[in-house]
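Input for the complex:
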Amino acid sequence: MGFHYELRFAGVGGQGSLTAGTILAHAAVFHTNYYATQVPTYTSQVRGGAAKADIIISDTPIIFAESTNVDFFLATHQKAYNAYKGDLKQGADVLVDSGLVTVPDEDAKIYKVYEYPLVRTAKYEIGNVVTMNVLAVGICVGLTQVLDVEAVRETVKEEVPERFLDMNLKAFDMGLEVGEKFRREGPTKK
Amino acid sequence: MAVDYAKYLRMDKMPLYWCPGCGDGIVLKCYLEAIDELGWSKDDCAMVSGIGCAARVTGYVDFHTLHTIHGRAIAVAVGIKMAHPDKHVFVFGGDGDLVHIGGNHLLHACRRNIDITVVLINNWIYGMTGGQHSCTTPPGAKASTAPRGSYEPTIDVCKMAIGAGAGYVARGFAGDPVRLKKLIKEGLEYKGFALIDVFSPCPINFGRRNKLGDPAKLLEHMKSFLVSSAKAKRMSEEELKGKFITGVLHKDESKPELTEAYKGLVEKAQASDEYWAKYAKGTLTDADKYKITREELKKLYPYDVETPLKEWKKL
Amino acid sequence: MGRIAFLNANAAVAEAALVAGLGFYAGYPITPSSEVPERLSKIMPEKGLPFMMMEDEIASINACVGASASGVKAMTCTSGPGFSLKQEALGMACIFEVPLVVVDVMRGGPSTGLPTRPSQQDIMQARWGTHGDHPIIALAPCNAQEAIFETIRAFNLAEKFRQPVVLLTDGALSHLHTKVYIPDPEEVEIIDRAQPDVDPDNYYPYDYNYEIPPLAKWWTEDGKSYRYHLSSLIHDKTGFPTVDPKYTQWLLKRLHNKILNHVDEITKNEYYKMDDAEVCIIAYGSTAEAARVAIDQAREEGIKVGLFRPLTIWPSPEKQISDIASKVKHIIVAEMNLGQYKLEVERIVAGRVPVYGVGQAAGVLIRPSQIYEKIKDPSKSVEICLTEEELKRFGGGE
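Predicted:
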């Protein structure tokens, strides 16, 4: 099998997990010539219920889009972390919001856990909490290098509303930096 | 000038199916006279009906006609009118058909104010199926399913239609064809939803069971429930209880008509091009622009199944 | 050239309908089908086409019948409970013989059931949901790309055979976004209903001289007006009611035969690794994708197993299934219901080989591993199940 990468973006409804997933999937499909699938799962409770988006990126068409070996897991809420941490593969990269999710010690032994104050940074350093998902996308790309940085940046430009563009690009670049730092220095929780 | 009724009728379908003394023929005659006065071409007229005695009208008029299922005529007519906003669309039907089973469609057609003219032949009974009571059967009146008299309250269809937002609402009486024709004509001319509720006798299935088998007697009986709008103005609320007012009850020239409103929406949509502006950038993109080759496209559908793409196989 | 897009099957159906020449949409919102009208509500006004959200499911299909009868291609879209409500008017479309496309995004039932979860429980409803004897065409695509192709085909079949066509997708397909190609109308074959070659005075909507009489548009492009009558009652060639027993029998037979005489043209099937197969999996829609993965896995171990996938669910591919029954040792039907299509396969196979089923109506996709296990041991029950102790307590099991 060639290139095959599974990501899971989980949070509670309203946090933007689905949008983050869409950005990566679109970057793969429109700017990288990969195949991608995206399966959003949410409960009938649109705001506040656990929600996730499973993204598979591959260089061959994906026949059965079932995420069973997740390479990268983003959790921005404890509820979502607990509900969707199954299906992770051993040694998967796990990115959580340090203020909202506490990763159990035994999990840190199986996965590479990175903690970062996503919400706080988005709100106070970037200036708007809605940029959290793009910040997370930036960290994801910087850390995993699953897709070309420019491809993702182009997609961010296409996907976010124009009036939030500058703010989001700032978030993306900040995320990239953080991600690259994580890549160099290894997991934050050992 | 005498109206050439035959011009509008499918004469090979004569004689009419209705019972002696039935009001349906009178209503049809008034309606044809109104059409004739307006000078509308048969080619531009479409009529839809559901099921019932009144619904048989579609078989007789030489228009584009659909004889559909019980209660749904107005919904079908909405489809035709939206697809052909420049044509005249009519619905004929009875109280059981249009108000009882099809009441929801009537309500929402009123609300939308779509340019359809509905002639509701209200005979207080399910005539064709043997005289079962409907939502317009007066309390106490006997029906085959109400042998001791109906115990349910009745409905004032016009009040309901006005409340729901219909642009033109009138009530006529089969016993007063001169005025009925005028009411129908005004409804046809009105650009918006027009409902003409026509009280019409069913001497066989309503009359006989209620000792009103003589059509003239039944007409008199029905008339006793009716009050002209001019007279009603001078009556107290107490006096009007249980009465039904005739004449033009409501006419709103300012309410937008639905197909016109849709035209406005189309103009707005085409001017802003919102959809393409959003999607041309992201989810909807020219394959050429993103340099997707035909070979790669083929990979999107790797199955050994023929596709409707003419050139797919040749790739 | 067309467009590349990243869509779920609902959006794909909406886009494809426009490629096929959709001229009128009326619907009522219902999970998990609502992306279809949501997308069309954006596009159709820009193209100047009428889009309606009606007061209920019944009104929406009736409005479509009206629009289609007058000469416009119409579609409505719904899910299980709404599909039940549409049945009476679906029958009207059958007896009127007006083209119509009804999309049913299958969700778990009965009743409100599992609104956000996938199922394939409407297979038999699609066939037998309407009262009376009538034929139906039902198609079941397995992914968003195929949903595009099959939607176009649904319109073509509807127009060609003057017949309502049901497109069956499911709640999983409606969530799964994939990369798809949306062709331009010029790239695909688009069929429009045949028009009469006689003038309006000599036109009959049910002319006895035709197997499928042309359905005249009420108002033609060149300014002609075909005035005629269509009745939901049993009717003669003029469209007017009749109760003549001989004619009634003839009409109902013709309704069936116009489909049955063209089964080869209407059915479409995929054979996957069936050449030397000793075991045949029959699966359709999204379940077939799981079967494909399971088959690849079993093949690696040398098990000779293949997939037969009907894209046309109704009319059923009797010849093909019968042929398979004469070649394989046994058949496994995998579907997200408790064995609806299995009944049809059993009818066709008529006891020649054993027919096993993976019948799961749990609101989740059948996984490849379940089908794989069934391939290994067909007598084994592989569906999601309670523990043995729970089973004893609540009853059930196979």
